[in-house]
Design a protein that fits this description.
By secondary structure, this protein is an alpha+beta fold. The protein folds into three domains: 1-72, Winged helix-like DNA-binding domain superfamily/Winged helix DNA-binding domain (Arc Repressor Mutant, subunit A, Orthogonal Bundle), CATH 1.10.10.10; 73-142 and 229-285, no CATH class; 167-228, Winged helix-like DNA-binding domain superfamily/Winged helix DNA-binding domain (Arc Repressor Mutant, subunit A, Orthogonal Bundle). It is built from 14 helices and eleven strands. The protein has a three-stranded antiparallel sheet, with no helix packed on it. A two-stranded antiparallel sheet has the order 1-2. Strand 1 and strand 2 form a beta hairpin. The longest helix has 14 residues, at 75-88. The protein is globular. Residues 1-93, 157-248 form the HTH hxlR-type domain. GO terms for molecular function: DNA binding. Keywords: DNA-binding, Transcription, Transcription regulation. InterPro entries: HTH_HxlR, WH-like_DNA-bd_sf, WH_DNA-bd_sf. This is Helix-turn-helix transcriptional regulator.
Length: 285
């Protein structure tokens, strides 16, 4: 999941594709992206199964990039990112728009609910354990994820600025997950994740400076802003377990403590409590 989604351009292209953009020229117009980077990302997203390249003109041959079922199912992750960046990250050139729910006609914020009992769920209500295919070592991508160069980012850097500090670096994401399950001390992070000490110290500093963690008394504790990333983590995890399933079973098993059953997260509207559909969410500019 991190290898596929750990890149801001990939997330932004996926966002535009879900809004109905399919042609190269329209992606190039809507995003501050160089042609070389756009070509590489579209090629990679097609190879990764997020987009399908389909011909729409024969002479000369031209193609459009249509979201696959795998690509379309990213909408909860993108919605969770949108909400977190809108509420917690001020470093946007323009404030992100509010979300509007076509189902009830209200501006809204998404909330995580349990599919089984429909209760609103926070990180305190869910117990996580390793499944048959899970371990820290197996869940870490072997290679670094794709990142933009400084020159590429210069135009409008940080369209998802702090989300990419989490999704765009394998150690940051793993640190945050470990923090959610109760890890607080440097040596414990190092022992669980197997991260090089220098990389670990660097990522802890970045997450602390961004206000996601608070370093107090030799411990790294999630702040309110850090806990608010729960919808991003849970929707990304569910997407990963759906599309990158291992034959022996899931990597992570989640249980909702209140109702005692396996936890399947659903994003719901905080105004009408109805489960959200991607097609019913629009921005209100």
């Amino acid at each position: 999941m991190l290898g596929v989604l750990g890149d801001e351009w990939t997330l932004l292209i996926a966002q535009q594709a879900l809004l109905g953009v399919t042609r190269y020229g329209d992606f190039a117009t809507r995003l501050p992206i160089s042609h070389a980077v756009l070509v590489r990302r579209l090629t990679a997203m097609t190879a990764d199964g997020l987009l399908e390249r389909q011909p729409y003109q024969e002479r000369p041959p031209r193609y459009e990039y249509v979201p696959t079922a795998q690509g379309r199912s990213l909408w909860p992750v993108l919605t969770a990112i949108w909400e977190w960046e809108r509420r917690w990250v001020p470093e946007h050139a323009e404030r992100l728009p509010t979300m509007h729910h076509l189902g009830c006609g209200s501006d809204f914020s998404p909330q995580v609910t349990c599919q089984a009992c429909q209760q609103v769920v926070t990180e305190k209500d869910v117990t996580a354990s390793w499944g048959p295919s899970g371990s820290w070592a197996r869940s870490m991508p072997a290679e670094s994820t794709r990142r933009r160069s400084a020159s590429q980012a210069a135009g409008r850097a940080g369209l998802f600025p702090q989300t990419m500090e989490i999704l765009g670096n394998r150690w940051s994401f793993a640190l945050l997950v470990a923090a959610f399950v109760g890890t607080t001390r440097f040596n414990d992070f190092a022992g669980q994740l197997g991260a090089p000490p220098g990389s670990l110290a660097d990522r802890l500093q970045i997450l602390t400076c961004s206000g996601v963690l608070d370093a107090t008394g030799g411990r790294y504790l999630l702040t309110e802003k850090g806990r608010a990333t729960f919808p991003i983590l849970i929707t990304a995890l569910q997407w990963a377990q759906r599309w990158f399933a291992a034959p022996e079973g899931p990597a992570v098993i989640l249980r909702h403590d209140s109702c005692g059953v396996a936890f399947d997260a659903v994003l719901s509207c905080d105004q009408c409590a109805a489960p959200l559909r991607g097609a019913d969410v629009e921005d209100r500019r």
